[in-house]
Amino acid sequence: MNFLKGEKHMGKAKKVVLAYSGGVDTSVCIPYLKKEYGVEHVIAFAADLGQGDELDEIKKKAISAGASQSIIGNLVKPFIEDFAFPAIRSNALYQGRYPLSTALARPLIAKKLVEIAKELNADGVAHGCTGKGNDQVRFDVTIGALAPDLQLLTPAREWGMSREETIAYGEKYGIVPPVSKKNPYSIDLNLLGRSIEAGPLEDPFEMPLDEVFGITSSIADSPNEPEIVDILFENGYPVAIDGELMEPVSLIKKANSLAGKHGFGRLDIIEDRVVGIKSREIYETPGLLLLIKAHQEIESLTLPADLLDTKSRLERQWADLVYKGFWFSPLKEALDGFINYSQKQVNGTVRVRLFKGNADVIGRKSKENSLYISDMSTYGSEDKFNHKSAEGFIYVWGLPSRIWSWINK
Ligand code: ARG
Questions:
Q1: Reduced DSSP (H G I as helix, E B as strand, rest coil) percent helix, strand, coil of the chain, to 5
Q2: How far is CA 180 from CA 147, 176, 328, 345, in A?
Q3: Which residue has the CA at smallest separation from atom 2 of ligand 1?
Q4: Which of 94, 189, 226, 286 reaches 20 to 30 Å from 69, CA-CA?
Q5: Model pLDDT, residue 181
Q6: Residues 343 and 215 in one domain
């Protein structure tokens, strides 16, 4: 029950699984854990989330930095199926804007770390997050939720070294610093998108340069003809684009390339981190944003107003929980119950026009579940609405207003 005291590495872990990315910070964590924390075996775990890294290189890098074992886990399928797709059903947007591309990856990596630690009989897990970001929160909270007694080692939060000092420390252990093409940005990348911060972006009034972007076209470079795409949903899940049924991973890739080509899915926002800091972040999340937008639309056709209203409030809370590290929590699970129940009738097609940075909904239909009844909505002669009954309804509906006004005149 060490965790109750909130103190760390009291147990002096000997075998630790480290979340490894191949970058300088996580590489330096390897000798640092051994030297300063007395860890005997560091097992590096790198997750493939569709970021397109050279994973074989990363695997070798960990060993040459002193890891006893280097594991690569292909998490693309669970990432999309178990994390991205529920986020689409939840229309999840932190602070109403950020579609959680980075945030969704962390609980999955943390879960995998814990699983590997259990399999290999490790007594601790570690990550290389600093003390200013959200990712440390997500890792720590998730690991705590899944394995409250596992030791958690967070060297980069404690070592107090500057970037230069970190590089110098690494060089002592043969860790080669990145061939400095002078990339001033800090970038997180996975199949759901790119998050870019730091460098010139730290001035929030400074326009992001073209060099910032990697998976979306600029407006100038995007096609001069619009492209119309049909997205089919079944039970709230996107299942086909332009009539072609696709597995979740292929569908996300297709949505990314379509939306990205037309320059849709760029965000430039000031967001509120869990640790109280406001940060300026650029996101490119073309496919995820497109699918959320289309999903919202098919819901508006197939769900009643009161359900939409309540769901939109709970969605906000869902996104907030995920952003703040509570993917594995009783409240999130309870909200999932609500959201899952709400999606049975969310079936149909949304038509979107992609053009010059926009994705505009231009049509929607649902054979089985549309609540739009043209004989009710029409202004034409097929009108089935009973106009007379509106009078009695409004008499009752407006009664409080009339009474108030009459009493207080
Ligand atoms: N602010 C975002 C989040 O908390 C993304 C941070 C990603 N890291 C980066 N180096 N850009 O989910």
A1: 45, 20, 35
A2: 39, 11, 39, 53
A3: 102
A4: 189
A5: 59
A6: yes
Q: At what angle do helices 399-407 and 387-397 cross, to 10 degrees?
A: 40
Please report, for the domain that includes residue 257, its CATH number. Answer: 3.90.1260.10
Q: Is 186 an annotated catalytic residue?
A: yes
In a domain, 333, yes or no: yes
Which amino acid residue places its CA nearest to atom 8 of ligand 1?
188
Q: Which of 178, 210, 230 is the last residue of a domain?
A: 178
Question: Per the residue annotation, which of 89, 90, 101, 106 is the catalytic one?
Answer: 106
Phi, psi of 190 (to 5 degrees): -155, -175
Active site residue 268: no
Residue 372 lies in a domain: no
What is the number of domains present in the chain?
Answer: 3
- Report the C-alpha gap between 226 and 321 in whole angstroms: 37
**Angstrom distances, CA of residue 192 to CA of 49, 54, 85, 99, 257:** 9, 18, 11, 9, 11
Q: Over the stretch 256-298, which tens digit does the pLDDT of each residue have?
A: 999 999 999 999 999 999 999 999 999 999 999 999 999 999 9
1 domain-assigned? no
| 244-245 and 237-241 beta bridge pairing | antiparallel
277 in the same domain as 172: no
Q: Please indicate whether residue 25 is annotated as part of the active site.
A: yes
pLDDT in tens, 154-177: 999 999 998 889 999 999 999 987
* d(CA 159, ligand 1 centre) in Å: 21
Query: Last residue of some domain: 144, 178, 212?
Result: 178
Output the domain CATH number for residue 139: 3.40.50.620
Establish if 274 belongs to a structural domain: yes
Which atom of ligand 1 is the closest one to the Cα of 279? 1
| Residue-number span of the structural domain to which 397 is assigned | 380-404
The per-residue pLDDT for range 16-59, each reduced to its tens digit, is 999 999 999 999 999 999 999 999 999 999 999 999 878 899 99
What residues does ligand 1 touch, defined as CB less than 6 Å away?
102-103, 134, 186-188, 195-197, 271, 281
Q: Give the residue from 76, 375, 376, 381 showing the smallest Cα distance to 250.
A: 76
pLDDT tens string 340-391: 999 999 999 999 999 999 999 999 999 999 999 988 888 888 888 889 999 9
Mutate to test the pocket of ligand 1, among 132, 197, 273, 279 (most ligand atoms within 8 A of CB): 197
